[in-house]
């Protein structure tokens, strides 16, 4: 996820909403939320250059940090991911997922916009379109 604004603002928002924890923040023990960057982390290390270019075009610059959300395999995660997306993208920015290279805006996510046959975080749709792949 690539929220607008400064990294410190996003960290402060996570601290307010998920107090007394950090690196990672957790939501109900099911979402693990942390920041990542290019300089000291792994941001974009497994991205195709074309996908980075799509992201840059969508937000108008090359982002140097992001929020990463990992989901426990114990839950579906859709409602929880949408909760965090609504919080972190309320002032703008985009989110990406493992299923399309499209940078999703909050209005697209909330309205259920379909791009290339998939909605945001549409692991079920992805599995239907690609039965040879499991949930990643």
From TrEMBL:
Domain of life, source organism: Bacteria
Protein's name in the database: Uncharacterized protein
């Amino acid at each position: 996820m690539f929220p607008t604004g400064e990294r410190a603002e996003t960290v402060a928002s996570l601290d307010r909403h998920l107090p007394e924890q950090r690196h990672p923040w957790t939501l109900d023990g099911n979402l693990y939320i942390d920041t990542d960057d290019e300089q000291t982390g792994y941001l974009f290390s497994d991205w195709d250059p074309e996908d980075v270019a799509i992201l840059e075009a969508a937000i108008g610059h090359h982002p140097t940090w992001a929020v990463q959300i990992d989901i426990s395999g114990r839950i579906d995660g859709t409602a929880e991911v949408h909760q965090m997306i609504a919080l972190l993208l309320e002032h703008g920015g985009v989110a990406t997922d493992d299923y399309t290279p499209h940078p999703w805006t909050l209005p697209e996510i909330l309205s259920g916009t379909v791009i290339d046959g998939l909605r945001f975080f549409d692991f079920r749709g992805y599995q239907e379109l690609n039965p040879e792949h499991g949930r990643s």
